[in-house]
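Section 5.1 Outputs to date
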Amino acid sequence: MGIENQKSVYKRRRTIRRSDPAAGLSLLKRRRWYLDVTVTPANVQHSSKANLITGIAGETIDQGEVLYRDGSVSPAVLMLAVNSSAATAKCVGFAQSAAAEGQPCTYSDDDPDYNPGGTVVVGTRYFVSNTAGKVAPAADIGSAEYVSLVGIATVADKLPINIINSGIAVP
């Protein structure tokens, strides 16, 4: 293929990416997948100042995942938070212990010195992600996703838990 043909193909790809909303959305979703904070459960640590609460797991939960309380069943159970609806994006805290479905799970809804078990960027706001149980930076929140702030990173390994559930979807 000659240089002119290569340039033409390149221009067409750029045009498609810019003009096709579906193509742009799929590219955005792939990009967002890599922006979630990668958590190593063994590295998750709460401080002595953490407010710890115990609930029952409604599904398998790993240490460090963000949770919401599912009140559609009785008794209410803890599930992995995801920003696809107002109910599932209403974060109650971070899991401090792993649990299988039906087992007790300890979580924290307030901790000024929380170590999320992964690297975070200082000064970055982190929200419930579109990947169940994960958190992502503000740049990762896309159209029609619900906004639930979980905290702002203060050090590369500290994400003070300060949950604000807005119940609002990004337009």
